Amino acid sequence: MLEVCNLSMGLGEFSLHDVSLTVEKGQYLCLAGPTGAGKTVLLECIAGLHRPDRGAIRLHGCDVTWLVPEARGIGYVPQDYALFPHMTVFENIAYGLREQGMRKEVITRKVRDAAETMQIGYLLERDVLHLSGGERQRTALARALVLDCELLLLDESLSALDVVTTKELSLQLADLHQQLGLTVIHVTHDFDEAFSLATHIGICHQGRLLQLDTVEEVFTRPTCRTVAEFVGIANVFPRLGADPQTCPVVSRLYQSPIQELAGRCVCIRPDQLRFSRNGPPAAGLTIPGTVRQVRWLGPLHEVVLDAGVSMVATLSRQEQETLRLRPGDSVNINVPDEAVHVLDDR
Amino acid sequence: MAEPQGAVAVTGRMQIDRHQVGQRIFRLTAAGALLFELAFVSVVLIALIIYVDAASFMRSITSPETVFSIKLTIITVTISTGLSMLLAVPAAYAMSVYRGRLSTVIDTLLDLPIVVPPVAAGLALLILFGYYLGDAMEAKGLFLPHTQAGIVVAQFFATMTYSVRSVKAAFDSISPRLPAVARTLGSNPWRAFRRVTLPLARNGIIAGTVLSWSRCLGLFGPVIMFCGATRFKTEILPTSIYLNVSVGQLGEAVTGTLILLIFAMLTLFVFKRLGAPGLLFW
Hints:
By secondary structure, chain A is of the alpha+beta class. Chain A has helices spanning 39-47, 89-99, 104-117, 133-145, 163-180, 191-197, 215-220, 225-230, 248-251, 317-323; strands spanning 2-11, 14-23, 28-32, 54-59, 62-63, 74-77, 151-155, 183-188, 200-205, 208-214, 235-237, 264-268, 274-276, 285-297, 300-306, 310-316, 330-335, 340-344.
């Protein structure tokens, strides 16, 4: 449906370098990454608000790189929602329909339907300046959706809301995506938000798209250190080849000669580490270590360990109830083969 | 050795007293300065008001010369303000949107009419439209120096910067995301400007109009230099006051001043109602 090919552009401090991506109809793609990664610039390029220096954007196979935004038919909800402050909720939602020259009765019907879908039917005559964050977000979504756009661009749309409203709206977005068969590109810097909503995730960093894949693939098989760090893998050991002395324990994880790891880094998933106080060693590598800290994170426990290098493991509540790990305890840390990944160090 | 509890309490109380005295002196100084300024403005205005009695005020205000100058003032000021605003809206929009290397140069050039002394501005206009373009324009039947059309030009020159500045402040306060989103909803650039940007800048534009109108109203230096002060020809209210003072008709001069004062107060009232008092303090 949407194809972005080798897109490059500079915009003040932000820039994009050779970004390419493909979004199929019905996908919910979350573009995630830290602030300043170029996610918003990419989204605005797709919406037609910036002209790229190089590259092409194709929508349904047609080149729209130089097409003006009003001719693209793409719904766009910016971070601050950009509701028109001199208009009521009704007038905001009706804005695009009026631009299409629709008849008044049709506009009224469509606006009411969109407002009901977004559960803001009771707000239609309200001034937008007196809306809560969630109501503003719903109004902005209704304004974009009322135009029956096939592609919806959301820029950090949930970031300014409180936890309860964010959860509520996440569910609603997921429902809308399924019910309307929408194709969505959603920019966020929130890892949890991305994982709860997306079918696919693209990780951006310093103007580059580092990895674009299904949620599971990005989570289980990150291609580089930055992606691994972004998806919350705490045990990343960079520059192993450059200085093996700093990571003697990790170097033992591999039988391969140390030179082969030059320019690469090792990553161990915290949820796949296993512990035993005594008993026979399990398959994979077993390293002795000491518990430094145990932190309760609700359904999980985070254990910080000293095994020659600092490592982090996560345990379920059940596992912790069995093991009863306390700071200062000596444990055997079992690293199964499938927990270890070698990644590009970038 | 520890101090007795009573002595500590006394020291603490003294410190509090000293703080309170300092605070009171500060507040009294600030309030005193404000009272002095209010009193000064009031006394000056009262002196002006009580100088003429009601009968002579009514006689002066209905005299043909005063009526002529009021009419000419209102007509020229309204035309020059209209022209000024007509150009200010697109010019201010261009300045607000354009953020290039030349924006500082453009900004400085546009501010020049504010910093140039009023008499010098009038002289510059006289040299341009009299010495350089005078003959050519006269040949086409459009001679500006010492004419009523010239008054409009002088007022326009002196006030256009204020118009552009106030409208630009209004455009600057509008998030560029709003017209951008309007574009994604189907508006072309002109429709986005007309339906989103312009209505949001409305208060700023009205405030700019009122401000420009009031500045034109009291404009004296450029007008007298460019158009002179000929009775029943180029006699607007400020030049009328000057003419009356120069021939010793103080009553008529004070009447003219009071009329300007009434206009100024009305303008201030409208301006404050629009909620843009900050714009007065450029």
